Amino acid sequence: VAATREICQQFPDTKVLVLTTFDDDQYVTQAIQCGAAGYLLKDTPPEELAQSIRAVQKGYTQLGPGIGKKVATQMRDPTPSPPPGWDELTPREQEILRLIATGASNREIAQTLYISEKTVKNHVTHILSRLNVRDRTQAAILANSMFSNFNDR
Fold first, then answer.
1. Do the Cβ atoms of 98 and 56 come closer than 8 Å?
2. Counting C-beta atoms within 10 Å of the first and last residue's C-beta, which end of the chain has fewer, N or C?
């Protein structure tokens, strides 16, 4: 999603077709919001992929099977419920998560919040565990989605 955003910002005439293994509603919605002209899963048959590439080049939006339904559902209910574990985050963890979402390093977070880098690392470990995400990147994607939804209300 971050790459899609970056490509679309730096090269606005470039059409992005996302090919991924992630079919989560959040990834689909964020990719489209960031400017992707299409979203397909990696198990898309080669002939369908080629057809989608040609369609996107002509200006059409392409969504893989089932993806269109997810987008339509998301549009009907634009306020997603928080993911599991979100409500378990402490105010400090949410503050750190916001900073992670901006791309801040542990050192930068520590300096901003006047805490030790080790304390930041402990908080990050708790955040990843509570949100059941693999790494900071997934946490940042989730945070950007959730914080933007809260700010829209």
1. no
2. C
